Amino acid sequence: MSADPHTPALQLVYDGGCPFCRHFASTSELRGGVPRLTIIDGRADAELRHALQQQGFNLATGAVLMEGERIWHGADAVAKLCSELEPSDGLLRLLQVIFGNPDRTRLLYPALLLARRLALAAKGLPVDPG
Fold it and tell me: Which of 54, 106, 107, 121 could connect to 75 by a Cys-Cys bridge, CB 3.0–4.6 Å?
């Protein structure tokens, strides 16, 4: 499927301090599995992070997915991203099945946040990148 050049690109803003988030975001399969996806380390981009916080989107409570003026946050961002996947990798196919359903994603998302908090604590990093 070829991307429409007039369709706004998707931008995923994640917390680069979280090893799980960083690993997921850095996989070449994710980059290739979602057409028009740009991946941004929000912990490293203070200006973008602060702009998102002013709109009520905090990376401490979830990743942000943007498409034009539309913004998804946390579980909604994960569900939207997984619904856009065109995976060839088995792990991403599994993630698409698990997190492609918004209701299931909202149910499971607190466990992902807990794992993120524990990983950041183990690295000595603050939960809130701001």
Answer: 106
The Cα–Cα gap between 108 and 28 comes to 25
Residue 46 belongs to a domain = yes
Query: Is 2 within a domain?
Result: no
38: nearest Cα among 3, 1, 13:
13
Q: How many domains does the chain have?
A: 1
What mean pLDDT comes out for the span 5-29?
80
User: pLDDT tens digit string along 47-57?
Assistant: 999 999 999 99
Does 104 fall in a domain? Answer: yes
The 10 Å Cβ neighbour count of residue 93 is: 14
Quick one: CA dihedral 42, 5, 26, 110, positive or negative? positive
3-class state of residue 67 by DSSP: strand
Indicate which CATH number applies to the domain containing 72.
Answer: 3.40.30
pTM tops 0.90: no
Neighbours of 20 (CB within 10 A): 15
